[in-house]
Amino acid sequence: MPAIEVSSLMKAYGKLQAVDGISFRVNEGEIFSLLGPNGAGKTTTIEILEGLRERDGGDVTVLGLDPWKEGYMLHKSIGVIPQGFSFLQYITPKEAVEYYADLFGVKIDVKDILRKVILEDAANNYFMRLSGGQKQKVGLALALVNTPKLVFLDEPTTGLDPQARRAVWDVIRNLKREGISVLLTTHYLEEAEELADTVAIMDKGKIITTGSPQEIIAQHSSGERLKVRGNQELADYLSKNSSLQVDYKDGIVSVMIKRKEEVVATVEIIGRSGLEWSDLTMEHESLEDVFVRLVGKPIESEGPTLVAK
How many angstroms separate the CA atoms of 243 and 238, rounded? Predict the structure, then answer.
């Protein structure tokens, strides 16, 4: 049984069709990333999956349950970290985990949970004194108190420095190793490319592509780029003596490559030019490059949304 299965999901707000017949599946134990620009319908979709908003049509099961009709049972088996997570300022991570355990009525090993999120060294520090990355780890720890089978992470590294982000990435990878399914939303495309087994890109209420990051890049990429440091004259020479797309900007000559044979041919043409050049590199398109091509704009962080059922 998949962790999440969505079929022809629909949700409208008046004349606005926020979610327009989308279907996808999150397999057990995988990291699934739902990406899209502001207004794509991601937040509405996640709220429906969490049982916070009722759908208009389609079928949705989360851990085999209907999230709207069986939300009470579902919430015992999922963990949620909302965007912009915060907590009581004068409470320690150890106390916070103990507090949540009392709320859920479960007995847990506090040290083990803090170990899982790499927070043992700050177990007794007040929340207000923790770093940004440590605060996010508190959220992760609280999401694990009820031993969830599925965790929803809504932009878990927003505002963190690169080192703190990577520390949170390690925690997310550990969740997967333990067989916990993860649904991740993020506006850092490299984060999705690094962590996700499967990515779905959503725009205007529809899912426009889905697959592994590598599959999506391969399917929608316009190719690789060979780049050398040179001048406009070199760019003009390449354009005249090849059928490839050549661009020039700020001292960099860039050539679009679609077949491996074109790399050798391009280098030979550069050699024959007799012009000065240096620093030859090959660049692969990233998930972010493909995302911008598909939706026409970069992804941006959305503000947190609070919904009461």
Answer: 9
The phi and psi torsions of 151 (rounded to 5 degrees) equal -125, 130
Q: Which residues contact 151 (CB under 8 A, 6 or more apart)?
A: 78, 79, 80, 81, 143, 144, 175, 180, 181, 182, 183
Strand partners, 203: 206
Residue pLDDT, tens place only, 274-295: 999 999 998 888 899 899 889 8
Q: Is 119 helix (H, G, I), strand (E, B) or coil?
A: coil
Q: In what order do the strands lie in the sheet with 246-249?
A: 246-249, 252-257, 224-229, 278-283
Q: What domains lie within the chain, and their CATH numbers?
A: 4-218 (3.40.50.300), 223-284 (3.30.70.260)
CA-based R_g, the chain, Å: 23
Distance, in Å, from the CA atom of 193 to the CA atom of 202, rounded to the nearest integer, reads 16
DSSP label of 65: B
The DSSP annotation for 277-304 comes to -EEEEEEPPPHHHHHHHHHSS---PPPP
- Of 110, 121, 170, whose CA–CA distance to 144 is shortest? 110
AA letter at 299: I
pLDDT per residue as tens digits for the range 49-95: 999 999 999 999 999 999 999 999 999 999 998 877 889 999 999 99
- pLDDT at residue 302 above 80? no
Beta-strand relationship, 278-283 and 252-257: unpaired
- The whole-angstrom separation of Cα 82 and Cα 172 is 15
Residue with tokens 């959305």: 302
Sign of CA dihedral 236, 238, 244, 249: negative
In angstroms, rounded to a whole number, what is the distance separating the alpha carbons of residues 172 and 153? 9
